[in-house]
Amino acid sequence: QVQLVESGGGLVQAGGSLRLSCAASGRTFSRTGMGWFRQAPGKQREFVAAISWSGGVTYYADSVKGRFTVSRDTDKSMMNLQMNSLKPEDTAVYYCANSIYIGDSDPRNYHYWGQGTQVTVSA
Q: Residue 29's pLDDT is what?
């Protein structure tokens, strides 16, 4: 059974940094895509970043490009999201997810999800 477990969320001031991690287990993730999404209260879940598990090709939402960096460690079955220059509008629950597609920004195409981790950015 596929398990995705996020960690690393917390409270940070605007301009600060956080690093999220996603521990993945339960299947072979090669030739699949991994993604980060976020959902703020009252808003739809939105795409943040994605990475191909095998080749490490990365994709970003325009709102985070240049500030966030997604990476993966295939030996440890981990995916990370380094978030710099955080803004109050980055406040949300952040989820990692797995898809058979690579670089997909549509959450409907992700079939496995973690439980989420809260990120709060104060002004």
A: 84
